[in-house]
């Protein structure tokens, strides 16, 4: 019964709020396939109210009047509160999107560091005095916030990917309206309740939840949104980019990936195989940086496949709420269907399925949306399984002969988000890091992220960078200021 489900409300101008129309959406637990919570089903009316609250807060003396150091102090305080609530939020997110509780505890335990890092950067974004070439003129630059930022986050890692946007935009002095995925909104709604406890002025952070057409599109089109920060699929990113262009809004888009994970014959094969497992089966393959194309040099190809299948076959599939589970469910029923379609397409293309390829039965969770860890060999880089993002636990293994062929295969992709290189040759490692077309290159490791390291894609994998000092630049604009110090009156019809 819907009356028995936990209800999560939006945050609007510092207060919890239901949808204006009074309607709710069910949030489904991927491990059971059953509803466990309700979120507000917002429309354009709710979007208007949230944007207005954010715009009012942006212009208010309570927020705009704060020094950059004071903003940083608020973020430090928020990070401490977030650390206290990490376990509760991890449990909510696991319920909501099926991510492993072990991973969510690690993510939430690390998340306060993101906010502390940007708290420290808040008063480091300096302007410059310009040695201007005009006599009796003083000129300098100011770094100023953009305004109201729309943060649109996906269902696979809602709070981590929100931090990549929210921490720098708040440190820079902006305000936010957050639209999480309708499939995984609960952790975000619980998370934003912490801002009042930290002392943030009302309206600095606001949320709207609901369906893309009813809620997301009005937010993207809203004339008072200065920038859209989006993580999600390529079709959604293209639609947002098109809408933003019509209104000349700024964007940061982190989109899909088909990342090559490249194992050379001289690699430490034990480490490389574990890295391959991490790259594709962690998070059930539901990550934009998934190393879903495993490129293996022919002289070690068979050994790598044998080791990989042996390890992946032992992966414990089950309840993500149990600490020893290694592979959880896919987050949505529709996404599971897409993954199965990709597996069928790979078979039809001639790839050989050497592991998995079906739907496992998990005792006690028969209604859950699980997919077996799946490995294909005999893959050609032109097959759909090698070119399209699956977003599930499906690995395509492609052989290569030498470094040049590995580069050719790796770069023959519309995407360029991340890549892995496994080799003990330092020269090769550097050459590959220079020539592989991706925003992040991992050498002898995979799926490592930090608040210090800029993250983002090339080609169809997106625009802009998140994390690191570069992220602050995404939420600031430069203003030039000229002051005449008493120069002679000049001809008003000639440019100074």
From TrEMBL:
Residues at the catalytic site:
254
**Keyword presence, Oxidoreductase:** yes
CDD domains linked: ALDH_DhaS
Which UniProt keywords are present, listed alphabetically?
Oxidation, Oxidoreductase
Q: EC annotation?
A: 1.2.1.3
Recorded GO molecular functions are: aldehyde dehydrogenase (NAD+) activity
At the top of the EC hierarchy, this enzyme's class is oxidoreductase
Reply yes or no: does the keyword RNA-binding apply: no
Q: Which domain of life is it from?
A: Bacteria
* Domain Aldehyde dehydrogenase as annotated: residue spans: 21-481
PANTHER family xrefs: ALDEHYDE DEHYDROGENASE-RELATED
Sequence similarity? Belongs to the aldehyde dehydrogenase family.
Q: What is this protein's record name?
A: Aldehyde dehydrogenase (NAD+)
